[in-house]
Amino acid sequence: MLRPGVSSLSLKPGDSSLDVRAVSSEQLNDKLYLLVNSNHEITANQLRTPEINHETTNVSKIQIIYTPENSIDTEIKLYAKRWLILFIFSSISLLSAFNWIEYNIVQDVVIFYYNQSLPDDQVKKIDAVNWFSMVYMLCYIPLVFPAMFLLERKGLKLSCSIGAFLTLLGSLIKCFAVNPNLFYLAMTGQTFCAIGQAFTLGIPARLSALWFGPNEIGLATSIGVFGNQLGTAIGFVVPPRLVHKKDPVDVIEKNFYSIFITVAVLCAIFFILSLIFVSNQPVKAPSRAQLEVRKSAALRKDVNDFDIFKESLKNLFKNFDYILVLVSYGVNTGVYYSISTLLNLIISNYYENENENIGLIGLILVASGLIGAVVCGFVLDRTKQFKYTTLVIYVSSFLAMIIFSLTLQINIWLIFWTTFLLGFFMTGYLPVGFELAAEVTYPVSEGTSCGLLNSSAQIFGILFTYTQGRIIISYGSFYGNVFLIAMLLIGTILTALVRQNFKRQEAIKMALKEIEEHEHC
C-alpha cells in the first residue's frame, strides 16, 4: 500500500543535474516543499500554483529551497539500527495479519469446535465466525485518524508499542479461549488484535522517511508492507495444515493451543524488542529531505493541526472526482476483503475436505497480489497515465472475477490459476488507486485522503462480506460471486467518470519550470 512519504526524481535543466525531492505536505499548512540540492548556492524563492479549483484548493504554494550540498553532509547519517527497527516492526505487522485470517481460513472447523457457544441457526453461526475477520475492518474505521494523529504527534515508538501490546493482549486472551463454550472470549481477543492493527498500518512510510536514506525509502516501505502481506499468507497456509474438521475435538483443541501459544510467545518477544530498540527518530537525519523537514518543524508551532484536518476533510468532500475514487477504491478493496474472508466458504461449497488446498489458494491470492502491486506501480511510474492505468486495472479485476466465478466448479486446480489473476489485478490496483487520489486532491495532505480511502475499504469490506456470506448460504457460491461482479462493474463505471484533473502534476510542472529559469539565469 502506498502511503505519504518522500519521492524523488532527477532532471537536467541545461547542462547541470538537480535532485528534486518532494516531501509530503502533511500538517504543514498544505504546502509542498521541493528541496533542491545543487553544487552552487541560489536564493530561495516561492511561487504559486494555478488556482484550478478555488473550492477544493484552499492553499496551493510551493516553496523551493536551494542548499549547497557540502554544507549539510555532516548533519546527515544512516544508522545500522534502522534495519533492526524495520525487522521488529515488520514482525509485529506479520503477527497482526496472521491473527486476522487464522480463524476464517478454517471456518468450518471453527464452527464445528465452537458449536456449543454459537447460535443455533446455521446462517447466524457463519455470520458470527465471519466477524473474526470483519472486526478488523470495523475497528479500523473509527481509529484510523486518532492512530494517524498519535503517530504524527507522539512518534514512532509509542504507536509501534501500543500496536504490539494490543496484539499480544489479544493473542493471550485467545489462548484462554480454547474451549467450545468460550467463542465470545475468543472474539474479545480478536477485537484487541484488531484495535492494535489500527496503530501499525500507517507506520511503514513514516518509519522509512524517518530512518532511511533517499535511495532506501521505497525498499524500506515495501519491506514494512510486505510483513503484513506475509503474515496473511502464513495465516492462509498454517491453520489448514494443523486443524481438520475430521479430527477428534481433543486433537483440534491441542492444535489450536499450538497455534495460539506460539503466536502469543512471538508477540511477547517483539513487544519487548519494540520497547527496547524502537526509537522515534535517529539523532541525525537520514537524508537532506528529512533534514529540511526537521528544520521546518518550527512552522508547526503556530498551526492548529485539528483546524487543518477539518479544512482538509471539507475540501475532500467537495471534490467530486475524489468522491468517485473514494467509492470505487472501497468497492475494489471491499471485494478483495470479502473473498479473503469467505474463501473457505466459497470453495468448500464445491470441494469438501480441501482445507489445505484452500489455504494454498489463499497464499496464491496474496503472493500474486504482491507481484501485481509492484508491476502496476512500475507501469504507473513510467507512463504517468493515472486515470487510464487505474481504469485498465479495474476492468481487468472485473474480468478476472468473472473468470474466477465461471471456472470455480470445473476443477480445484484451475482455481489456483484464476486466483492468481484475481490477486494480481485486485492488489495491483491499491497503489495506483492511492496515487490517483493524491493527484485529484492536491494540495490536501496525502495522509488524510489515503486515510479516508482505507476507511472506505473497511466499510465496503464489512458490507460485502456480510452480504456475500448470506447469498452463498441461501443460493450458493456462484450467486455470491455474481453480487461481487456487479459491484466491480459499478466501480469500473465510477472510475471511468473521474476527470483528468491532476493538480499535483501541474504543480510539479510549474516548479520545474521555475527551476529551469533559475538555471538559465
UniProtKB/TrEMBL annotation:
Pfam families in the cross-refs:
MFS_1 (PF07690)
**Any one Gene Ontology cellular component term annotated for this protein:** membrane
Q: Write down the superkingdom of origin.
A: Eukaryota
Membrane topology type: Multi-pass membrane protein
Q: Name one GO biological process term.
A: heme export
Q: Which GO terms describe its molecular function?
A: heme binding; heme transmembrane transporter activity
**Transmembrane residue ranges:** 83-101, 128-151, 158-177, 217-237, 257-278, 320-339, 359-379, 391-408, 414-437, 478-498
Determine if Repeat is one of this entry's keywords: no
Kindly state which keywords UniProt assigns to this record, in alphabetical order. Membrane, Receptor, Transmembrane, Transmembrane helix
State the SUPFAM superfamilies in the record.
MFS general substrate transporter
* Residue ranges of every copy of the Major facilitator superfamily (MFS) profile domain listed in the record: 88-503
Where in the cell is the protein located?
A: Membrane
Q: What is this protein called?
A: Feline leukemia virus subgroup C receptor-related 1
